[in-house]
C-alpha cells in the first residue's frame, strides 16, 4: 500500500462489489471497513476484477487519476498476470491457447470459445507437476477476458478443479475453483518504479496440492 494504490490478497467467496445496495459480504465492504479503520478518505476504486471464487492479487486505486492510469495499463496489456491453477486431467506439456471468447447466448453469465466473432484471448499454460488425474499449472494471460482461464482450460479438456460453471460438479463445498492470481507486475503510474506483487495461496489450495502429491 502507498498513497496511490492498495494491493490485497482476495479470499475465495467474495464478489468485487455489491450488485444491489443491500448486498453485504463483498470486497467493497472489506475495503470500506479497512479505509474507515485507517481513517482513509477514499472512494473504493477497483482497477480490475477477479471471479467470486478466484483468490489472489487485486488492485485498488485511491484516486480517479491513478485508477484511470491503471485501467489503461490493463487495456494496453502492460501488466504481468500469472496464475496458479489445479486442473482436471493429466497435462503432459506446456500449451498456448489463442481462441476468441464471447458470451454464451444460451446460458446467462457464461462465456464460450467461438470461431466467429468474439474477443481475442491468449492463455499460456506451463505445467508444474501432474499425475494421472490432475495437473498443477502456472498460467500467464496476455488478455483479460471474462472467465478467460476457466473457459480456455475447459476448452482443451482440462477444466479448473471445482469449477461449477465450466467443469465437473464441485468436489468440495467449502472452497471454490482452484484458481489463484499469484503475481501482478507493472510500472507504477506515479513513481515509474517497476513493481511486482506475489500473494500467498490459500491454505485450502496448498492442502489440495499436498493431497494430490500423495497420489
In a few lines, what is going on in this structure?
The protein is an alpha+beta fold and 215 residues long.
Question: How would you explain this protein's 3D organization?
Answer:
The chain is α+β, with helices and mostly antiparallel strands. Helices cover 20% and strands 29% of the residues. Strands 1, 2, 3, 4, 5, 8, 9, 10 and 11 form a nine-stranded mixed beta sheet that branches. Strands 6-7 form a two-stranded antiparallel sheet. The protein is globular and about 50 Å long. The mean pLDDT is 92.
Name a few traits of the molecule:
two-stranded antiparallel ribbon; alpha+beta; 215 residues; 29% strand; globular
Topology overview:
Layout: E1 5-10, H1 27-37, E2 45-46, E3 55-61, H2 64-75, E4 80-88, E5 95-97, E6 101-103, E7 111-113, E8 123-130, E9 134-141, H3 148-155, E10 179-187, E11 194-198, H4 203-214
- How would you sum up the global shape? globular
Number of helical segments? 4
* Proportion of strand residues: 25-35%
How widely separated are the two ends? 40 Å
Overall mean pLDDT stands at: 92
What's the number of extended β-strand segments?
Answer: 11
Which bin fits the share of residues in helices? 10-25%
Which structural class do you get from the secondary structure elements? Answer: alpha+beta
Give a short account of the largest sheet: 9 strands, mixed
Order of helices and strands: EHEEHEEEEEEHEEH
From the alpha carbons, calculate the radius of gyration and give it in angstroms: 18 Å
Point out poorly predicted stretches.
Answer: none
Amino acid at each position: 500500500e502507498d498513497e496511490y494504490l492498495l494491493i490485497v490478497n482476495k479470499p475465495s467467496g467474495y464478489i468485487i462489489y455489491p450488485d444491489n445496495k443491500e448486498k453485504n459480504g463483498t470486497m467493497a465492504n472489506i475495503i470500506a471497513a479497512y479505509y474507515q479503520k485507517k481513517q482513509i478518505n477514499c472512494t473504493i476504486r477497483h482497477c480490475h476484477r477477479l471471479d467470486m471464487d478466484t483468490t489472489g492479487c487485486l488492485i485498488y486505486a485511491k484516486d480517479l487519476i491513478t485508477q484511470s492510469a491503471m485501467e489503461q495499463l490493463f487495456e494496453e496489456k502492460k501488466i504481468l498476470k500469472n496464475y496458479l491453477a489445479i486442473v482436471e486431467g493429466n497435462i503432459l506439456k506446456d500449451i498456448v491457447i489463442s481462441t476468441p471468447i464471447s458470451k454464451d447466448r444460451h446460458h446467462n453469465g457464461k462465456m464460450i470459445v467461438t470461431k466467429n466473432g468474439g474477443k481475442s484471448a491468449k492463455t499460456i499454460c506451463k505445467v508444474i507437476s501432474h499425475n494421472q488425474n490432475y495437473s498443477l499449472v502456472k498460467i500467464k494471460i496476455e488478455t483479460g477476458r471474462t472467465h478467460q482461464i476457466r473457459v480456455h482450460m475447459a476448452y482443451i479438456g482440462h477444466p479448473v478443479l471445482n469449477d461449477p460453471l465450466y467443469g465437473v460438479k464441485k468436489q468440495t463445498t467449502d472452497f471454490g475453483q482452484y484458481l489463484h492470481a499469484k503475481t501482478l507486475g507493472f510500472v507504477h503510474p506515479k513513481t515509474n518504479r517497476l513493481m511486482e506483487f506475489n500473494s500467498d495461496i490459500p491454505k485450502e489450495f496448498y492442502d489440495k496440492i499436498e493431497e494430490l502429491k500423495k497420489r
